[in-house]
Amino acid sequence: MKIEIHEITACGFYKRGDHQPLFGVISEWLTTFHGWIKNRPNVAATTTFSGEESTIYCADMFLHADGFGIKLWHGTPATESGIAYISSGDRLGYTIAKERKIGKNSIPGWPSYFWIIPKENRIITLQHKGGIRNRSSGIPALRDYLLSYLTKISDFTVFSDDNKKRKKIIGYKRTKSSNLHKNLTPFFKTSQLELPSNTNDLMEQCGSIRKLILSEQLSRKLPVEYSAWEEILKARAWQNFHAPKDQKLNFRIESDWQPFQDELSELIEQFSGNKDRNIKQRIGVRLLGCSTIHWLDTIYAQDQIDISKELENALDWNTKQFKQAWMQARDARILAHTSV
């Protein structure tokens, strides 16, 4: 099972230009959201929005000692009576869509699982193999789902008093007795937690390094970077390339490299531990037979852990299985960066 740690970087209602919310941090409303979910009459009533390609439902939510478990169901487009499909063996231009019927009131789709630790502003994703291929962590859908709840359904939202069926949102309040704020913007944003690269492990695998990767971003707005931009384009015979003045050039150079220990050590000393976002250059290496880039500055907080075959191969998890998976995930080294 793969796990990732994400930070909640913005949550609540913000005045224009402010970096801190006036109110609405996740610890203020997650328990109320849990109550709203538990009071829904069925899964269909848990939607907070419908996207163009998917409708998101909450299929499970529960409170545990160290946080909240949330299971989303990502509904996929369907016909009136089932799902449409084509054969992978059909020739291009000769595909014929077929329809497979599913049970009445069935919602085709796939699940995603999250553990939210509100006191730390952390979200942990749990991705087991299951029987559904090519699933993502589902974190973008969770962001949209919770933002929609915060914006349209939460107790912070104030509606007009008219008798129309679709009431208009007129603003937001911290409590019912608080002042109404009409010009606040709600946000719910996350980013995957970044940690210092484990350069000790990399030194131990020095003999397996086969590639050196340089990644850099240049801006045409800055004279020094613009000159470098022109030199790169000239070297590639692209000097007639025209682009807007505010355009950025992102490029990556990859070279064969089998370093000695002292060469790698010198490179690590120069680039490891860099968290300055103003520096737009990154150095990484790739190991023999591995597509993953090991960056020398930071790495994303993620890990692959062993869980029971029953849980790993299950099509879906019920509440009991979800809790079991979480209890096994808590032993992962990566979670030392949380309080669980």
What fraction of the residues are assigned to beta strands by DSSP?
25-35%
The rounded distance between the terminal residues' Cα atoms is 18 Å
The count of helical stretches stands at 7
What is the rounded Rg?
25 Å
User: What is the helix fraction of residues, given as a range?
Assistant: 10-25%
Largest sheet: 7 strands, antiparallel
Overall spatial form: globular
Q: Unreliable segments (pLDDT under 50, ≥5 consecutive)?
A: none
What can you see in these coordinates?
The protein has 340 residues and is α+β, with helices and mostly antiparallel strands. The chain has 2 domains: 192 residues, no CATH class; 104 residues, no CATH class. The protein is 21% helix and 32% strand. The strands form 5 sheets. Strands 1, 2, 3, 6, 7, 10 and 17 form a 7-stranded antiparallel sheet that branches. Strands 13-12-14-15 form a 4-stranded antiparallel sheet. A hairpin with a 2-residue loop joins strand 2 and strand 3. It is globular. The mean pLDDT is 85.
